[in-house]
Every structure is written in C-alpha cells, then in structure tokens.
C-alpha cells in the first residue's frame, strides 16, 4: 500500500513544473525562461556537433556524456565524440559558428534551448558551447524513476573576461592530479584563468633542462616536468581555461638563490688584515630553501647582469611551455632589506638615478618585459610593480586591502586611472578561511568611485587566490571549494545577483556535484576524521566540526614556524572549514527564537544545546583512545558547560548567575585550542544578551 | 569527575603491556618477541641511516617520517633525509649492509629491535629496511595522550620471492595517480612485483614515438606517456617494486589490429569474375577497438613477417622504459578461429610442420624471445605459452582453475615438473568479487603433490590480478583492497599463518591505514552513495550495502555488452564489496543463537531483522527522489518481508507458514536485482532450517 502511494507521488512529481528558484545553477545565467514541458533522458541519448568549432568541444561533449551517464546510470550507447555531424538526428545539437581562441575578451556567450525531445546549443564558439553544457548538467532534474531537463531558454554571457583561480604549488607542492581536478571544477563554474604560482621561497617547481640546479637544489624532488606542464596547459585549453604561470621575482627569492646564490643581494662583509692595513671584502651569502611561512629577505640583485642573464634563459625555457599571452612575474613583498645593506646595489641606484627601492624594483621589472615580449608574452604582476614608468601593457594584480593597512582594492582604481588593465584578488583570498559572504559581496567594480567607461573596461575581473602554507594535497580542495563557486558567480553573473540565501541554497547542490569531478572537499573530511579518531566511530567529531572554523586571516601559524612546508596537515583545524553549517543553522534558530519565544522556536535552540552537551561527552570518551582529540576538549567543555547553564535558563526558567554565564561565554570565544574557533560564539552572545 | 576518571584510565593504558595478538601486523612477521617497555614518540624524533644502501632508503625513510607525522600530529623537525649519517644520535637507526637490487631472490630480510629510547633496523639492504619501516609503522600504539611503539624484536623475511599485483589498464584506463597510490599500498604490504597489463582488445596504453598510430587509433587518448612510464618505474623502484609490463599477443589483438590491420589473421574472401573463370582474392579485414568485454577473435598473423617486424620495433621502443628483467607477452585465450579460416596460415602450418594451433602459437612466441633477449629481458606469459619447445628461461603464469574447467593451478605443477619457473594467479583473481577467505587459503605450494626441492624452488610466488572490465579509477581500489593484503600475507608469511579470525581482525586496521596512502576504497563509497541517493542522507543505503555483495565470478555483465569500457561505474553494485561486514556479523549471531537460544543470543539475531525492515522502509522513502535506488527495492523488500515472518516466529513464537517462508527465502537468493546478491542468504537458510 505504501509502495503504491509512493508510485502515485512519483508520477505526480513527473508532471510537476519546475520553478526558477528550484534550479541550482551557478553562476546564475544572465537570462533564463522556463517554458512548459520536459526533456526526458533515455539510454539512446546522443550528441551531435556542427559548425566550425575547435576540437575541444569533442572532448567537452564526451565528458558531458560521461557525467550524465554516471549520474543517471543509463549507460548511453554513444562513446567518444570525435568529429562533426556524427549523428545528425541526435537529440542534443551543438552548433558553434567559429573556432574559439583562449584569451581575453573572447566571446563566451551561448544560447541553450530545451524543448520536449530536443536540446539546442548555439554559441559563437566552442568556448560558449562548453559553458552551455555545464549549465545543461546543472539543469538536471529527477522524479522517482527518471531524469529529465525542464524546458527552458537560457541566454548567457560573462560579466567579466578574467575569472581566475590561483593555486600556490610552491609552499605545499600540489601534484598534477590536484591541478587537473581543480581545472575541471573551474570549468564547471565557468572560470577561465588558472594562475599557477610555481616559484616561491619554499620551492622551484618547474623542470629546467638548462638549469637543473633549480630543481636539484630547490625543490626536494617536488616539481612538474615540462611534459606535465604542457599536458596541463593542454588539459586547461580543452576546458576553455588560460594558464598564467608565475615566477615570483625579485623578492620571495630563497629557492632561486638556493641554486644560484651568486645573484643574491645579501653580502657578507669580511675584514681581512693583511699586514698594516685592514681590507674589506664581500662574500657571496649562501641561501637555503625556506621551510617556514612568512615574508623573507632573500632577493635577487637587480644590479647584477648575471641576474638578467639567468632570468632571460629561464624565460626562454619556460615561456614556450605555455600557450597563453600572460606571464606573471610576482613582484610582491620585496622589502629591499638586502638591497639597503649592499654597497654595490646602493651605488647602482645612485648611478641610475633611482630614488628608492620601489624605483629600483621598477628598473628590474622593466628588464623583464623584452624577455617576455620575445616570446609574445605580456607581463602581469602583483600591485607593487605599478609605477609611472611601468609599461601600460602590464596587468596590475590588485591584492592589498585592510589586512595590509590600505583601503580595499585601492590599487585597482589607481591602476585603471593610470591606464593599466587590472585584476582584483583582494577580498578573494580563499586561504584566509573567511565565510563565503565576504567573498561573494566583494565586487571588482568599485562602488564609491566614478570611473569612465574606458576605465571600467580595464577592470578585467578577479581571481580567487589559494596560498598553500596551510593546505596539503589532502586538504586544498576544501579550502578552495565550494566558496570559489561564489566568486565565480560574482565574476560571471549580473551584479544584481547578490541574494545570500539563494547562494547558500544553490551552493549545497553545487558542492555535492563537484564530487563527480574528483574534488575531495567532502570525502577527505571523513578520511581525516578517521585518522584523528584513531578509526573509532566519530559522529561527535563531525558534529563538533560543524560549529568550528579554522582560525582566520593569518591568525593560525602566527610565527610561521609551527607548520613546515613538509608538515602533513591532518589536524581537526584542517578538517574544519568556513561557513560551519550548524553554526549558520543555530544562528537562524536564535534569531527566530528572539523574535518569537514560542515553544517550537525554543526547541530549535535547545536541541542544539543538548546536542553540544552530548558532543562533549562523546568527544571525551573518544579521546581516551585518540590523542588528537585531546586538544578539542577544553573548547567542547566550555560549550557544554555554557549550554547546560542556558538550558537551565531557557528550558527550566531558572535564573543563572550572569557572571558565570559571561565567563563561560568568553571561554567559548577562545582562540587557544586546536587552532579553531567556535563559530557559534556570536549567536550565543545574542542569546545571552537578549 | 568523569574527566578525572578518564585520565586515570589513560595513565593505566600507558603502562599496559601490549600482547602479540593485539598487534595488527600484516603480513605477519616470521618471528616476533615482545619485550618489556615502550618507545614513546616525541617531536624531536629523528632517523639516521648508515651503511651502504641504495638511495631509495632516503625517500623511504622520509615518507615514513611524514606518515608517522600525519598520524601523531607531532610535526617532527626533521624534514627530508638526503644522506648518510645526518644525525648520528637519532633515536631510529637504520643500517643496511649493501645496495639492494630489484629482482628475483634478493635478500629482503630485516631485523627490527625496539627498546625504550632506541629503535634499530638492521638489514642486508635497503629493500629489507623498507619492509622494516612498514612493520614499524604497523607497530604504532597509543594511549589517550601519546603514541608509542612497544618494545620488541622482530626478525623477518619473505616466504616467496614473487609477491605481485597485476592491474589491467586496458579495459578501463587507470591514470597515473591510481597506479602510484596502489604502488604505495603494495609497498605497505611488502609486495614487490607490479604487473602492468598495458595492452588488450580494448586499448593500447603506451605512447609510441615510432608507431604513433597505436595510440592515435587504439587508445581514445587514454595512454601513458613514455615519461610517465619511466616515472612510474622509478616510483616503484623507490618502493622496492619491480615492474613487469605486459603486451598481450597474439590474441587479445583488437587494439593492435585497429592500428595495423595488415598483420591480422582474418581474411575476407572476394570472388571476382573476370570473363570466364572466377578468381578468389583475399582482402585485409578492418578491425575496431573493442568496447565490450569477453574473448574476441582478433589475432596477430604468425605467418606474416611484418608481424615480427612490428613487434620487434615495438619491443625496441618499450623495453628500455623498464628496468626489470621480465617482460610479459600475454599469450592467453587465443582460440585461433581466424587462423583456422585463413588458407595462408594453414599453408604456413603445414610447411613448418606445426601440428596444431598450440604449436603455431609456440612458434610465434619463440620468435619473441630473441627480441626480448636483445634488451636483456626474459619472457613471461600466461600458461598457454607452455609447451615442450618453450625456452626454460620463460616464467609460466598459472591462471586457469575450476572456472576454466581444469584443476586449480594444474599448470603450476606441470610447469615446475617441466623445469619452468612459475607464478600462481589462479585463486588470486580479486576482480571476481569473492570473499577474502578463498584467496587467503590458496597457497602457491600445492598440497597434494610431491615436489622435489628444486621443483618447489621454481614456484616463485603469486600475483593478485585485477582485471578492469568492471572497475573504474573511482572503484578499482575497493576491488583490490583490503583483500589483496591477505594475498600479500599468504605470499610473505609462514604457511602456518592461516587463522581467519585473526586475519579479519587485523584487516580492519590495515584497511583503515591504507587510507593514508591515498587508497580510496573507503572514501569513495560515500561519494557513490551521495550520487546514488541524489545527495540525500543515505544511512539505509550504507546499511544495505553491508549485507549485499556484487555478483561474483563472471556473473555480472554476462554477455559483456551491458557495461562498455567507457561506462562510468556508479551503481550500487559498484559500491558493494565482498566480505559484506554485517553479513559476517549476522552469520556469527545466527551460529551463536543456534547453539544457545538464550534471550541475549536471540536479540543479536532479531536486532538485525528489525534493522532490515527499517532499511527497506527507508530505502523506499529515499527512492522517491532517487531513481538509482529503485533497482534495490525488490531485494530489500524480500528481505524485509522474510524478516517480518522470522520475527513472528522467533520473537512472538508464532507459527508461520513454511511455504511462505521458503518462498521468501528463495526471493532473497535472487541474482536478478541491481547486480548484487544478498550475502545473508545462507545464514537465513540456516536459521529457517534449524
């Protein structure tokens, strides 16, 4: 009987008209109209491609088939798509007018029309068609027995041309499979620039045939071969993604200088007494690969011709590996300490009438432009490269903000006003473990500044940056995703798409679907829990992680020496993520309760409090056979103690000592345990102060 | 108060003496003596290496440090070990007398001594030292606050020299990261031969510079570059593992012949009428890459000189990629149908006095020996290569058994009696989804045959084989592990180590620890459940998977066409594994209850029955929004219906209709749903018949 009832429900569902706000599209398209009807997917589903596309659409459409296959379990007959017009009567028709070229300001628009029995994708090029296929996958619906697409017309194009993700492969090396799966996730979110931070104090990550010392002495064996790099560039190209490599100079130079100390700026003065007079010599300083995190002094010597010779040879070898137009040369955080203490460099500054280290660095950077031009590449650099003398062809990468004591994105406005193209990363530092809201509402287009049309046009877009001091191959996906999906939406969708509750709702499905691309942000949590709990059942750990967030904005690993670049990151803080789910739900419950203290609303709150008392007791039990659980106990105990007091107050209507309450609350605000903070602190405070 | 109690327990635990049967070592060492005391691990823990080892021990010891780091969260100061005697006072001292060479009959023994404050590893070579480090990791214990090793002396060496795992990368292509993580897992289980099945009807997986057609026309773009292959060979070497490549000829030839049809055996006869007399011509048959599973006819033409020319050129290019001594040429399952129907080949047979197709195949295989000898490689092949004329240098790979209508491993005895070296795979086909017991109790040394010492010595060991018709990169780990760990123990440990309950107990920990090597057998289950359940909470799915096993021994995908080589494998059957855990527990409960029908024992049984009634109802609910759950419902309903009857019988002491009971039981034995079978059927039958 129950079974019959279920079948009745399912046929009802089959006919239900999907509403726009039920769709979990991300980034949200520019225009969508749902019409009547559905396209039901069957085993005979086929794809046909016409027009004049780049062959990347064959791979893209094949991958689309495989994903749809895996979701629906239908096992389509069509295997690999390798040419034009293979199945003229196929239900899904893709037409591309022209061959898409990866680069700035390419037409990425598409039109997707779904009707009963037919799906049509029309795009200027394969780049737009790939985006259309991602949208189509996101349109997938189901009832109890089958999968279908709702009938719709979608017209879509990106707001910004540069929608990037940077991955730092220098601090914690990130192997090829990490890069590839993140390229897949980027493509799913319609992102089109992969900025690959390949060199920093902690490592040189590029195989060099003419300068093997760079990997022999400065990589610990962790580097990409040139074949791997070319392979990744091709993999990215097939997904419509440009790769922008970065070699960070002249600062962040420990790795280069570990291999080539002779081009370093640091000198050691030696006083040698030869008979009567004392003579001063300078001696080359030796450098070591950096194992800690922070800003370090090793800097290339801009006065040494050998510096430019080496860099020129490096670019000659590295540039041809990349097909894109841009090469990022870093340029950030050079404090110039070793320049100040080197007499030869001081003399060079004077001779060349360079007023300060900034001008000296500009001099240095300007030497790189022809080296890159030779390979048809334009220079891109962090905002420090910008001065009046810098070439206007350069792209200024705006990264500083309140953390660095300047107004958010101030360099962005300066750059466009001075005629530079620019890309925003301030506000998109996903490694800082901030909630999705801050990134999502951070618009590359400044709100309170009047810019001309031309100036606005120079704001190319933005880039999420994933620095890897505290991210291993095991954890990096959970640091990037799903928050970067929200940044992707900011960069693609209309500026008015800013509804946070819609974002959060859609992100749940988007996050789940990233799994099919191999993104490990969900699955690896369970792996780490098993390690922390010593393979004991660990529901309490998971519950606790749902209200804990890792310490934010450089407050974890403060001196930069606690975690080394070779440290595995397997602690509770490495499992926790921003936007702790129960913390969000608890905050909603508290708000609702404070608005209306009905019994129903009260139970919403007290259920959480009771849960946390249990969590603490379960964690204590778990800890008897799991040393890695011990550091959590002070925090879980504070929360349990406070919860008990609050239950007395709310459930039992007893009066509780306000000082005790306040003390317990502040203990819940501690940042001293397990490198995490309780994300429910503010909601608890509201509850107590109400 | 509770907290204090816990602390008391933990200090008690700290002093508890570990007993041998508490250790979760696998493979079990030849000799172990636990002594008094413990070695407590601290942040300053360091490793020092002395003697004359191969540099692979530096990488091995560094990896050891990282794993211990990740488990303990101590973050050791020591980073990378790159040379001898870096820390003479280190607590862990490793001494290797000589440089280990990868190959047959190498001394892999080691001695591991743990005392308070000191650990000493002594080995003939780095190969033994690597094994010792794996044992040491398995010795890790903890109390509530710290990690330690119990004091012990372990002396250990392998029983067999050949302890292999074969992975089929032809049917479903397995990318580099799949291979690498499985090499890590093999090393953890002290296995030393990776047999890489690189070519079959479904694909050619080796980049060929002189014969690019092989990958262009026969790989769908899924192949290993030569650099990747060399990289994997090096990766394996660093872990003490020899790589044995396989190019399967002359049968299983669809891929080679898709690129080079001119060396195929199949001919098409054309009758051409020219005036009065009719002339017969033969025409080259075209071949296509195979998409299905099974045994196919495409076979190389052994009478065609071009066949040998091509193979010779192929070996010239492929052999240098591998450093090991053995090259596997397949040779299996050639039915010779296309030979029989080709007049030219029949003529060739007559001319060369080859009595039958077996002799013709031997003729073919003998031509390959000098091609391999040229590169200092010996030939290995599946048992079909064995005849009186075959070179005694060849290794015979014994694979047939009851499934093929012959006595288990009969070719193994024939081989050693005829003077051949041999490796056993019959009984180790992990892709057949049989329980661990059958593999574990399958000993390479035949029980009922008298062999001389020399004959016994020719039994080199065994190899687990993982054919990939039904295994994708997503699921293959769960098909290989943890059962292959039991095979590893069979091949390493004393023949008397056969206690199944000890094996099952130790396998739980071994299985968990394989996760730290990246093995995905546990984590990917959850990923697939999320896909099947449409991201709904899926405890019922997991519960049901704990009593279901995939159809065994070629009974899934019977006609070989249901699943193509490009089909993603994302169904419930792909999540389920042999040795379904609740089925084992239920069987134990039934046995206990049948022995003694106490209330306690009754509850053990009825709790399962109640659980399955709930599972069915939850699965039905889940299915209303998850089409992929639908196929499970008939089976879960049968089990729930039977459980309800059994509850009436056992709990309520009501009499139930035996015919109804029998019918329901037989429905629980159905193999017609979702490609799985209920692993509790036999236990239910026992319960009913009792």
Automatic annotation (TrEMBL), chains A, B:
SUPFAM superfamilies: (Trans)glycosidases (SSF51445), beta-N-acetylhexosaminidase-like domain (SSF55545). Gene3D superfamilies: Chitobiase/beta-hexosaminidase domain 2-like, Glycosidases. GO terms for molecular function: beta-N-acetylhexosaminidase activity. The active site is at residue 333. One of its GO terms (cellular component) is membrane. GO terms for biological process: carbohydrate metabolic process; ganglioside catabolic process; glycosaminoglycan metabolic process. Residues 23-156 form the Beta-hexosaminidase bacterial type N-terminal domain. InterPro entries: Beta_hexosaminidase_sua/sub, GH, Glyco_hydro_20_cat, Hex-like_dom2, HEX_bac_N. The keyword Cell inner membrane does not apply. Residues 1-16 form the signal peptide. Keywords: Glycosidase, Hydrolase, Signal. The keyword Transmembrane does not apply. Residues 160-494 form the Glycoside hydrolase family 20 catalytic domain. Pfam families: Glyco_hydro_20 (PF00728), Glyco_hydro_20b (PF02838). It comes from the Bacteria. Belongs to the glycosyl hydrolase 20 family. This is Hexosaminidase. The lineage of its organism: Bacteria, Pseudomonadati, Bacteroidota, Flavobacteriia, Flavobacteriales.
């Amino acid at each position: 009987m129950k079974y019959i009832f279920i079948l009745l429900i399912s046929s009802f569902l089959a006919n239900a008209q999907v509403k726009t706000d039920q769709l979990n599209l991300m980034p949200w398209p520019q225009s969508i109209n749902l019409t009547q009807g559905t396209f039901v997917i069957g085993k005979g589903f086929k794809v046909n491609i016409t027009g004049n596309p780049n062959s990347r659409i064959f791979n893209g459409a094949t991958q689309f088939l495989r994903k749809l296959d895996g979701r629906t379990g239908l096992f389509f007959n069509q295997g690999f798509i390798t040419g034009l017009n293979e199945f003229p009567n196929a239900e899904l028709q893709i037409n591309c007018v022209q061959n898409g070229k990866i680069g700035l300001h390419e037409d990425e628009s598409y039109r997707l029309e779904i009707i009963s029995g037919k799906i049509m994708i029309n795009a200027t090029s394969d780049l737009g068609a790939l985006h259309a296929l991602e949208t189509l996958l996101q349109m997938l619906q189901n009832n109890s027995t089958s999968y279908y697409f709702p009938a719709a017309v979608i017209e879509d194009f990106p707001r910004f041309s540069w929608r990037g993700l940077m991955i730092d492969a220098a601090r914690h090396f990130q192997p090829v499979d990490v890069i590839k799966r993140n390229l897949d996730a980027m493509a799913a979110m319609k992102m089109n620039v992969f900025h690959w931070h390949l060199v920093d104090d902690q490592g040189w990550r590029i195989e060099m045939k003419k300068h093997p010392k760079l990997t022999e002495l400065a990589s610990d064996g962790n580097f990409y071969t040139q074949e791997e790099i070319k392979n990744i560039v091709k993999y990215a190209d097939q997904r419509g993604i440009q790769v922008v490599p970065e070699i960070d100079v002249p600062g962040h130079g420990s790795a280069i200088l570990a291999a080539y100390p002779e081009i370093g700026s640091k000198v050691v003065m030696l006083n040698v007494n030869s008979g009567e007079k004392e003579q001063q010599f300078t001696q080359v300083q030796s450098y070591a690969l950096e194992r800690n995190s922070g800003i370090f002094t090793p800097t290339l010597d801009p006065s040494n011709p050998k510096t430019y010779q080496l860099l020129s040879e490096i670019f000659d070898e590295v540039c041809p590996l990349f097909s894109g137009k841009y090469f990022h040369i870093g340029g950030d955080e050079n404090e110039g300490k070793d320049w100040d203490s080197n007499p030869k460099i001081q003399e060079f500054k004077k001779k060349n009438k360079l007023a300060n280290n900034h001008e000296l660095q500009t001099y240095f950077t300007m030497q790189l432009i022809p080296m890159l031009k030779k390979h048809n590449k334009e220079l891109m650099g962090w905002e420090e490269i910008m001065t009046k003398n810098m070439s206007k062809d350069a792209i200024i990468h705006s990264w500083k903000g309140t953390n660095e004591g300047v107004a958010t994105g101030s360099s962005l406005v300066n750059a466009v006003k001075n005629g530079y193209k620019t890309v925003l990363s301030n506000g998109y530092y996903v490694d800082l473990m901030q909630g999705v809201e801050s990134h999502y509402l951070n618009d590359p287009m400044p709100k309170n500044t009047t810019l001309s049309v031309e100036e606005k046009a120079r704001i190319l877009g933005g880039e999420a940056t994933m620095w890897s001091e505290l991210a291993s191959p095991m954890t990096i996906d959970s640091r990037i995703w799903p928050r970067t999906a929200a940044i992707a939406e900011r960069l693609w969708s209309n500026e008015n798409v800013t509804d946070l509750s819609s974002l959060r709702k859609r992100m749940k499905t988007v996050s789940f679907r990233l799994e099919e691309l191999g993104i490990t942000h969900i699955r690896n949590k369970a792996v780490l829990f098993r390690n922390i709990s010593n393979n004991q059942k660990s529901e309490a750990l998971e519950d606790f992680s749902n209200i804990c967030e890792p310490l934010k904005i450089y407050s974890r690993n403060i001196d930069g020496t606690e975690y080394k670049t070779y440290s595995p990151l397997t602690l509770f803080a490495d499992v926790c993520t921003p936007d702790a789910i129960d913390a969000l739900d608890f905050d909603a419950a508290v708000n609702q309760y404070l608005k209306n203290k009905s019994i129903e609303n009260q139970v919403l709150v007290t259920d959480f409090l009771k849960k946390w008392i249990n969590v603490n007791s379960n964690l204590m039990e778990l800890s008897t056979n799991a040393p890695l659980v011990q550091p959590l106990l002070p925090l879980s105990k504070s929360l349990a103690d406070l919860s008990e007091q609050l239950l007395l107050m709310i459930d039992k209507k007893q009066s509780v000592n306000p000082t005790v309450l306040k003390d317990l609350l502040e203990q819940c605000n501690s940042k001293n345990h397990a490198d995490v903070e309780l994300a429910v602190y503010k909601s608890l405070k509201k509850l107590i102060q109400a």
